[in-house]
Design a protein that fits this description.
Shape: globular
Structural class: alpha/beta
Strand content: 15-25%
Length: 274
């Protein structure tokens, strides 16, 4: 089954709009953007459009590439101190001269809807938070809607990035699955992908996974994105869909749902604060 992530995100908008409208003080989403990166600018536009559709105001704070670490830290601290700001997103990537984790760690756990700070990630790792990293929230939403369980299944995660690979591994292991994590050091990943009941992709390598590398009925979650001949494509060859019980295409798969999960986290943190 090919999952239409955009349609699911549209469904979620309806419930989010209602829930946000019931709040006494509707939170503001703050987005910190540095430099001029076309891909980042596109992601910010998508978040702004979603925010508008659910009645959320967005404040984007723009900085040039030459911004100092100290200036960014000051901006984050100001946002942390504002009661009307419910969530803070630091749009990645940041310039190479900026220590990314220092900035991410400056975001208050009460407003870290991306869950990229060390403190928030540790809470997730220990199972001490009600919200999930956006990509994991997207996968969980799909599994809930499709009625697919995770019991006694073998999972394979391709990639070790902080947005997909690492949180996916932690979450799947917490669900009791046997998880194999693959990266560039593995010479033949098909040896493992052929055995996977659940396959999570976050390598950012165009069409890395071919149909002959997966088994019939696998649930394949493609969260890897890259450019190929001016198109955004995933880690999985689209032909893989024919063998999958669940297949998330790129685009219109995990991506739109990941954005929706940012606002779900915003809503949940606001409720918790209340």
């Amino acid at each position: 089954m090919i999952i239409d992530g955009k349609k699911i995100a549209e469904d979620l908008k309806i419930s989010f709009l209602k829930e946000f409208s019931l709040l006494k003080n509707v939170p503001i989403l703050a987005i910190i953007s540095v430099g001029e990166d076309p891909a980042s600018e596109q992601f910010v536009r998508i978040k702004k459009r979603f925010a508008e559709s659910v009645g959320i105001k967005v404040e984007e704070i723009l900085f040039p590439d030459s911004v100092s670490l100290e200036t960014l830290l000051e901006a984050v601290e100001k946002l942390n101190s504002r009661e009307d700001i419910g969530g803070i997103v630091v749009q990645l990537p940041l310039p190479k001269n900026i220590d990314r984790q220092v900035i991410l760690d400056a975001v208050s756990a009460k407003k870290d809807i991306d869950m990229l700070s060390t403190s928030m990630f540790q809470m997730f790792k220990k199972g001490e938070t009600e919200i999930l990293p956006p990509v994991i929230g997207a996968i969980a939403e799909i599994l809930k809607r499709e009625g697919s369980g995770l019991e006694l299944k073998k999972a394979v995660v391709v990639g070790k990035g902080i947005l997909v690979g690492v949180p996916a591994t932690i979450w799947l292991e917490k669900k009791g699955l046997e998880v194999k994590v693959l990266d560039r050091s593995v010479p033949d990943i098909s040896e493992y992908t052929k055995e996977a009941d659940i396959l999570v992709l976050g390598a950012g390598s165009p069409y890395l996974i071919k149909p002959e590398m997966i088994k019939e009925g696998v649930a394949l979650f493609d969260a890897g994105t890259s450019e190929l001949t001016d198109k955004i494509v995933g880690d999985a060859d689209p032909l893989c869909a024919e063998k999958c019980s669940i297949f998330t295409p790129v685009p219109r798969g995990i991506g739109p749902l990941t954005v929706a999960m940012i606002f779900k986290n915003l809503l949940e943190l606001k409720k918790k604060a209340k």
